[in-house]
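Changelog-adjacent note: as of this version, every example in the card shows the full chain rather than a window. The one below runs 182 residues end to end.
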Amino acid sequence: MKFIKSALSVAVCCVAAQAMAADGEINFTGSITANTCSVSVGDLNGGAGVNVSLGNAPALSLKKAGDTAGAGSFALTMTAPKDDKDCVLTGKTATVRFLSMNGAAGPNGEWLALEGAGGAGVAKNVAVQIRDAKGVDVQLGRASSEYADLTQPMRFTANYIATGEATPGTANAKASFSVDYK
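Full-length structure tokens:
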């Protein structure tokens, strides 16, 4: 038994002696900003929430790329946290960027891909398009038109858009957003 312990001690020493070290570098980036204002999402009828119904659109209305159907609207409203003197909305402007949580669709990846795209039971050749208050297509990852009065809701609409001849199925999409105001 004494020999086994000694042999084990020698083996552990040999393994420990072969440990290696490596150097590396980590860069941390960021910025310090004034307090941020809050953003709430709601429908244009004053309801809160993030579900935008585009309704039931017949596949026949989405026969070729670029055809649109269904419609829904929503608004992003900026608010100052209570007693926050750093969040001043008057005189500020903002743009909004949307990112798809399901991937991108469209010739240039400008629209929201459907959840489960390509899967069973999901509509094919359909995406969701977002437009700003001016009716301009807000391409994924790109800034919307500028909103000049942040004391009012920033209004958007959404609709289905065909990327080819649509087939029936579920047509749900999710997006995240960021608001850049100055």
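Structural remarks: The longest helix spans residues 2-17.
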